[in-house]
Amino acid sequence: MPKLLLDQRNIINRKKLATKISLIAKEKNLKSETSQRLILRLLAEEIKVGKKEIRKRFEKNQNGMQAANLNSFLIDQVLRTLFEIGTLHIYRATNPTKSERLALIATGGYGRSEMAPYSDIDLIFLHPYKLTFWCEQVVEYILYSLWDLGFKLGQSVRTINDCIKISKNDIFTKTSILESRYICGDRKLYDKLRKRYYEEVVLNDKNSFVNSKLIEKNIRHKKFGESRYIVEPNIKEGKGGLRDIQTIFWAAKYSNNIENIDQFFNSSFFTNNEINKYKKSKTFLWTVRFWLHYLSGYAEERLTFNHQIEISKKLNYRTTKSNNSVERFMKRYYLTANEVGSLSRIFFSNIDSEKNLFKKKLTKKIDTILKKNNDIFAEYQDRITIINEDRFFNKPENIIKLFAISQSYDIEIHPKATTILIRNLYRIYKLRKDNESNSIFLQILVSKKNPEKTLRKMNESGLLGRFIPQFGRVVAQTQHDMYHFYTVDEHTIRAIGILNKIESGELNNDHRLASAIIKNITSRRVLYFSVFLHDIAKGQSGDHSKIGEQIARDLCPRFGLDEDEVNEVAWLVRWHLIMSHTAFKRDLGDLKTIEDFAEFVGKKERLDMLLLLTISDISAVGPNTWNAWKGQLIKNLYLSTYDLMDGLVETPLNKRKNIAINKLKSNLKGWSKEDFKKFVNLHYDTYWLSNDLSSQIRHANILKNQNFLNQVLKIDWHNDIINAVTEINVYAPDHPGLFSSLAGSITLAGAIVLDAKVSTTKHGMALDTFWVQNSISLPYSEYADLEKIFRYIENSLKDKNWLVNEYNNKKLSLEQNNNYFEIETKISINNNISNFHTVLEVTTHDKRGLLYEVTESLANLELQISSAHISTYGQRAVDVFYVKDIFGLKVTNKRKINKIINFLKEKIDTNKNNLSRKKIQTNAA
C-alpha cells in the first residue's frame, strides 16, 4: 500500500469500528439477522463518512493519485472488518484443517491501490485445495455483505494451482496476479502464490508477456480511437490515457520485477526527468478521472464536452484573450496524452535493447543510403536506428534526415532512435537556420510517399513543434465546438494525408474531380504548404486566416519558396474558407455569386488549388464531415466558376433563359408542343436562371400531371443518390408564410433541411423544393417516414394553428442537450451579394425547430423567401436566406433593416432562454 496522507483514521478508524462490533457481539448473537443489519448499517455509515472525507481532501488538494490510494485504503478496512466478522465470529473454525485456510487478495486497479470513486472491486478468494464448506460460507458472507453495501465486484474463488494454470494461458489473469496485493487472511498462502507465479509463469515468458501487452494496447487504441487527439477522449482506455501508463508499469514489473515507479531509474528505463513526467502525467489523469466520476455520479470514463467545461472550472483554468478555459484545460490533457506516448516509446525501446530483441543486420533495402552513413545509422530487423550519437548530432541535418530515410525507403524508425531524439530535443533550435535541414523537411512535406505518416512521427516525438515553433503553438490546440473532431495539429496532418491520397488516386471514387485536377497542378510546393499552414494561427487572438497569412509570408522563405510561391501560399491561407462559405451559404443559381467568386479568385490554377485545399480541410475535420451533398455544392461552384473564367456563361440574361428552355425541351420525352408552351408560359424569367435542369424536369412533370392550371396541393419526392439527399417538391397555392409552414412541417417531422428553393408561377402557385436528409444524414429509405413529412405538410396547410400547436408541444424536446456551448446569435444583412435579393444570414445555437422560428419571423416581417441555405458546424447553425420585401424588391431602408435584425435576434434569443429555463425546471422536478 502506498504511503498515505496523515490522519487516515479520519477516513475510517478500524479500531473504533471493531470496538462497536464487539459491543454488538456482547449484546446479540452476530449470526442473527438483526445483528447483520446493525453491522451493515454501521459499515454503510463508516463508508459514507470515509468517502465524504476523501472527496473533501481531493477537492482541497486536487490530487487524484492520493484520492485513489485513500479509496483503496477505505475498501481495505471494510474487507478486513468483514473478514474478521466472518472468520472469528459468525463462522469461527474451532479446529481448522489445512484446507480451511483463506486469503483475500486485491487485483486490478484495486490491487495497485488505485480506486476511482465508482470503480469495481476486483478480488480473489484464495484457498489451498478443494473448496471446503467453511470457506464457501465465509466467501458467501463477505460477497453478500459487499453487494448489500452497494459495491460492484469482480470476484473469483481459486486455488493456487488454478491461478497458475489459468495465468499461463490467459493474459488477463496473468496481469491480475501480477498486480495482486494481500489484504487479509492466510499470508503464507498468498506468499506461496507469488513465489510459484514468479518461478512458473514470469521466468518462462518475459518477452511474450511484453509483446502480448503491446498487441493488447494496439487493439485497445483501435477500439477507443487511434488518435490521442479526439475531441471526447476516453481517459482510461484511450490513446495516451491511464491504461497506457499502466501498460508501462505492467511490462516493467513483469520483466524486471519492479514494484514502484522510483525503481525505474535504478533499472535505467527512465531518467529522473522522465520519472517525474510519468508521475505528473499519472496524477493529472487520475485527478481528471476522479472529477469525471464525481460529476457524473457513475464510472464515466469519457471526457465529454459538458464534463470538459465543469472540470476546467474545478481545476481553476481561466479564459485568456486567445483561448477559453476549456481549450486551455484540454490542451493540458492532450499534451499529457502525448507525454504518455513519448514515455511509452522510450520505455519499450529500452525493453527492446535490454532483451536484445532486435539484432543488427544490414539489408539490401536501404543498403546504399546506410553505406553512406554507416557510422551513424543501422538497420535493426527492418527498422532504422542510430548507432553513434556523437556523430549523429555533429551534423544537424541528420535529425531530419532520419525521418526522410524512413519515408523514402518505407522503413520504421526504431524506438531507440526515437528515444535518443526525445532526450535531445533541446538541440532542435539549431536546425531552424540550417538550410539543409529546411530543404529536407520540404522534401518530406511534398513527397508522394505518405507525408502524413512521417509528419505524425515528427509531431509525436516533439520534433515538429520545435523545428517549426509556429506549428508548436497549435500542437494539442483544441476547438471546443462539437464540429472539429481533432486538435489543430492532428487535423492539419490528416489534411496533408487526404491531399496525398487524392494525388495518389487512392480517393478517386470519392473525389473524382479533385483527382483529375491535381494532375495538372504545377506548383506542388505551394499546394502542400498552403494545406500545412491553413490553420497555423488557430488559438491566437484574432482572425486565424489573417494572422495565418502573415505567418505564411514569414515562414515560407525559410524553406526556399520564391516570392511568387510565398504570395500564393499566403493568399490560399488567408482565403482557405472562401470556397466552402460561398458553396454552402450562397445561392449558386444566382450568376452574381459566380461572377463575384470568379473575380475574387482571379485565375484557374488558384481555383484548382483552392478546391484541393477546401476538400482536404473539410475531410480532415472529422468522420463523416465531408459528404456527397457538400461535395456536389463545392463541385458546382468550381465548375460554374471555371466555365465563367473560360467565357462560357458570360451571356445576356435573355439568352441564358432561352438556352435553359431549349435544354429542357430536348430532355422532356413525350411532350406535345402545346404542353411545353403552357409550362414555359407559367414561369417568370428568374425561374430559368435559378433552377437547374434536373429540377426543371421534375417540376414540368408535376405541373403536367396537375393539368398545369390545377390549384390542388401536390407533393412529389425522389432520392438523389449522387448527392445523398431526398428532394421534396411541394406544389401549392402561394400565400404569405407558405415557406415557413412547409419548412416548419418538414423539420418538426424529423427531417434535416439542407437547402431550399422557392419558385412562384404566374397563376399564383408556389413550387417549393426542399433537399433533406434523415436523422443520420442519409436520404430517406422508409416510405413510412416520408409519409409522416407529407402528413405534417397537409395538416399545416389545412390549419396553420395545427403547426403552431405542434411546435409549442415539441418545444422542449426540440431543444438539444448541448446547451453548454455558448453561441452568440448574430444577424447580418447584405445587399451587395445578389443583384435582386437581400441576403440575410443568421448564426446561432442549432436546434431542430430553428428553421421554423426564423422563417415564421421572416413571414411576420412580410419578407418573401426565394431560397434558403442551411449549414451546421457542430452546435453552430448558419442559415442564409435570399429575401425580397412585399413589393418584390431588396430591403434597403436602414430602419427596416434594423427592425429585421432586432426582431429576429429577440425572437431567437427569447426562445433559447425560455427553453433553457424550462429544461432546468424539468430537470429539477
Q: If you had to describe this structure to a student in words, what would you say it looks like?
A:
- The chain has four domains: 8-204, Beta Polymerase, domain 2 (2-Layer Sandwich), CATH 3.30.460; 218-355, Four Helix Bundle (Hemerythrin (Met), subunit A); 468-645, Hypothetical protein af1432; 711-920, no CATH class.
- Helix content is 57%, strand content 11%.
- It has 40 helices and 15 strands.
- The strands form three sheets. Strands 8-9-11-10-14-15-13-12 form an eight-stranded antiparallel beta sheet, sandwiched between helices. The protein has a four-stranded mixed beta sheet with strand order 3-2-1-4, sandwiched between helices.
- The longest helix has 31 residues, at 325-355.
For the largest beta-sheet, the strand count, sense and barrel status come to: 8 strands, antiparallel
Q: Structural class from helices and strands?
A: alpha+beta
Sheet with most strands: strand arrangement: 8-9-11-10-14-15-13-12
Number of separate structural domains: 4
Quaternary: single chain
| Shape, per Cα inertia axes | globular
Per DSSP, what share of the residues sits in E-state strands of 2 or more residues?
5-15%
* Residue share in helix: 55-70%
> How many runs of DSSP E, i.e. beta strands?
15
Q: What's the total helix number?
A: 40
How far is the first residue's CA from the last residue's CA?
44 Å
Q: What do the pLDDT scores average to? A: 88
User: Low-confidence parts lasting 5 or more residues at pLDDT below 50?
Assistant: 356-363, 915-925
- What does the radius of gyration come to? 34 Å
